Task: inverse folding
């Protein structure tokens, strides 16, 4: 959950998001080193009147400042490609959920069950209970078992939407007439918030996503209760 004045990412709740955080820190450290070096060179050039004749015309320096950026790009590209392939991997999901975007709410269908599905609307501000978050709470949460691979099939019924939960490292566009898929593993129990991340009309800001990760036993009890109510 993000908090006011937060500068970094939300705490990771999935293995992929942990990898993304590590890659972010890795890339940012390289940027800091490059920025420090460039700043030092600029200050040195401005503050001294001395000139080194070997720097004015030196093949060795030209080789260094050609090869070094190439090496740095490789050091950034390799872990980036690794994470891209990790995010695209969907191996033997334990549960498949179809998320449909509407103007302006989400509907969820648990395709492994006979008749388990519901609509998820934002709770109006005046109906919030103490401790609930404005514009982020939904009347029905998407409940999933923790430590289990979950596949999400994402589509839309009317206009473009985007199903995004930052702490799980998930963001997938919902396109009418197209079925996109993504996956995640919730590594700990908790409630994780997201919002539609594609401008979809007047109430774009009012269709939150709430994912609740619970132990498997609690998920089985919840699904049984939902099927009985249906």
Result:
């Amino acid at each position: 959950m993000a908090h006011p004045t937060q500068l970094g990412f939300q705490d990771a709740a999935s293995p992929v998001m942990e990898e993304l955080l590590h890659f972010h820190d890795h890339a940012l450290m390289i940027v800091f080193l490059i920025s420090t070096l460039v700043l030092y060179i600029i200050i040195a050039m401005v503050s001294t009147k001395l000139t080194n004749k070997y720097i004015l015309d030196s093949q060795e320096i030209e080789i260094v400042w050609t090869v070094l950026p190439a090496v740095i790009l490789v050091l950034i590209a390799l872990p980036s490609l690794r994470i891209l392939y990790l995010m695209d991997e969907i191996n033997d999901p334990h549960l498949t959920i179809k998320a449909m975007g509407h103007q302006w709410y989400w509907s969820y269908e648990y395709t492994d069950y006979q008749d388990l599905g519901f609509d998820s609307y934002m709770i109006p501000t005046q109906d919030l209970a103490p401790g609930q978050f404005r514009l982020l709470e939904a009347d029905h949460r998407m409940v999933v078992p923790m430590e289990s691979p979950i596949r999400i099939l994402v589509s839309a019924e009317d206009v473009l939407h985007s199903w995004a939960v930052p702490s799980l490292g998930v963001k997938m566009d919902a396109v009418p007439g197209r079925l996109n898929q993504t996956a995640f593993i919730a590594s700990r129990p908790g409630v994780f918030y997201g919002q539609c991340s594609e401008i979809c009309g007047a109430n774009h800001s009012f269709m939150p996503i709430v994912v609740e990760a619970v132990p498997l036993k609690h998920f089985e009890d919840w699904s049984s209760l939902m099927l009985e109510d249906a």
About this structure: The chain has a mean pLDDT of 91. Residues 15-47 form the longest helix (33 residues).
